[in-house]
Design a protein that fits this description.
Strand content: 5-15%
Strand order of the largest sheet: 5-7-6
Number of helices: 9
Distance between the termini: 78 Å
Shape: rod-shaped
Structural class: mainly alpha
Helix content: 55-70%
Order of helices and strands: HEHHEEEHHHHEHHEE
Number of strands: 7
Oligomer: single chain
Amino acid sequence: MTASSTPDITDLNHEVQRQLGRCLIRLQQYERVLKATIAMQELSGTLESLPHALDARHTEVDGKTLGTLVGRLMTAYIVKDGSKPLDDLPNHQVGSTWMSVRIQQSLPETAYQILADDLSTLVKLRNALVHHFIDLHDLRSVEGCLRAQKELSRSYAEIDRHFEHLCNFAGEMDNVRRRISEVIQSPRFQELVSDGVTPNGKIHWPSAEIVGALREALQALSIDGWVKLGAAERWLSEHRPDQTPKSYGCSRWRHVVHASGQFELRRFTRDGRAEVWFRERPNSGS
């Protein structure tokens, strides 16, 4: 190479910096989509706390490294075919309506392992670019700069391939979320939340509003945890007239208390008269 055709080392360095910056920006875009995907993969909470659940999930994943995020992706969102769903519903207040939504994609074991290895390579590539790039390339020489440019060109293509793949996963998740949103906004779902009546007509007693009304009566009238059923009926007639046993296929309040399975009925005799009292069962509610 003659002196007149020798590339300027300054220009070569600038090109290396441009290509490295392009790789790092693409990696940041990848991490942003990955964080959003993991945050939206699972949401749970009461009707009151659910609107804030997504913000809490975003905050929880915000400071995680790419390696940690990839680990979460491959254990929480992408799973092997036949994996058993987690049964980890957290504790919540008795009597509250708790909702939990978890979105997952399953892959055959071979495809799952190929993807896991591929993502592991991406994490190593990211770490090399961020922490070791100038140690691996001699940017003081023309040859070193040219090799660095070739390496960065290959690196960008690899990062971009992963980015497009992740966007496909995120798009599929977004479609599922839209369908879930349509279900939640449907009249039948609203009826389930407010009245505890499932689409097939069965009553989910723990979340039924009439059970909630009985709990309100307990809070207002409780004596050592017990309430006389007759007193509760009068209180409900005055304070919750919208809730009636007939709406739930029951003939009277005693039938509701018994059918719901959320309360304990007991007969006490006082001054020769039998009185029916009830209280909430331990660990009842949903």
